[in-house]
Amino acid sequence: MTHPESFKAFAFPERHGKLQKITLPWKDPKDGEVVVKVLACGVCGSDEFLEEGHFGATYPRIPGHEIVGDIVQISPTVTQWKVANSLMELREMADTQEYVTLRAEVLVNLPADTDPAEVAPLLCAGVTVFNALRHMDYGPGDLVAVQGIGGLGHLAIQYARKMGLRPVAISTSPSKKDLALRLGAEAFLDSSKEDIGKALT
Fold first, then answer.
1. Nearest to 69 by CA among 96, 92, 93
2. Which residues of 104-123 are buried (b: 16+ CB within 10 A; e: fewer)?
3. How far apart are CA 69 and CA 42, in angstroms?
4. Are 35 and 89 contacting, i.e. CB atoms less than 8 angstroms apart?
5. H or E element: which one contains 161?
């Protein structure tokens, strides 16, 4: 495959700076690496921490760590992947760019019909919630409280239900009730009006 000599990325030029479009030079992958064309990159709360300088003081800094993309170039030492594999990756920051070079071991294969925009956010919020649930000591039918129905909570309800648990959604926002129940919560508790400890026992 032919590749461009350069490509676009978005970066914070300095601490508290606004995102700017920059140009990066193409680099062929080194041993153990692949180059991925980014199809979707989720936006996470930690990207704001990057902008504020909490992850080091070297700038420009490219945010993003939730990507779905296609492999476009592979180093000769990589044998488990092929060009055009659709994948997602789990790694450090720096994915809001057209192409990204990654270690082959951080990739996960995806079905070809995957919607990149739907899958990308699962790489941070989704993995965080899934790991918390899978390491819990529980059995089928156990009650699990999900505190907050936001970026992680709405996924926790769905995962818990699929794992055979009985999720109860807890929030101070009554507007989240319909969503929580639709996603599979057995009940919704408004912690601004109820004693949650009593309600759960």
1. 96
2. beebeebeeebebeebbbbb
3. 12
4. no
5. helix 153-162
Name the token pair of 137.
């000591």
In 3D space, the residue among 105, 104, 165 whose CA is nearest the CA of residue 129 turns out to be 165
Residue with tokens 């676009």: 8
The one-letter code for the residue type at 68 is: V
Closest CA to 112 of 65, 70, 67, 66: 70
Strand 20-25 and strand 6-11: the pairing is: antiparallel
Nearest to 175 by CA among 200, 154, 199, 196: 154
Tens of pLDDT, residues 129-175: 999 999 999 889 999 999 999 989 999 999 999 999 999 999 999 99
Cα 22 to its chain centre, rounded Å, is 23
Structure tokens given for 40: 């979707």
Low-confidence ranges of the chain (pLDDT < 70): 1, 85-94
Q: Which residues contact 136 (CB under 8 A, 6 or more apart)?
A: 144
Tell me the two tokens of residue 195: 């004693």
**Quick check: helix, strand or coil at residue 118?**
helix
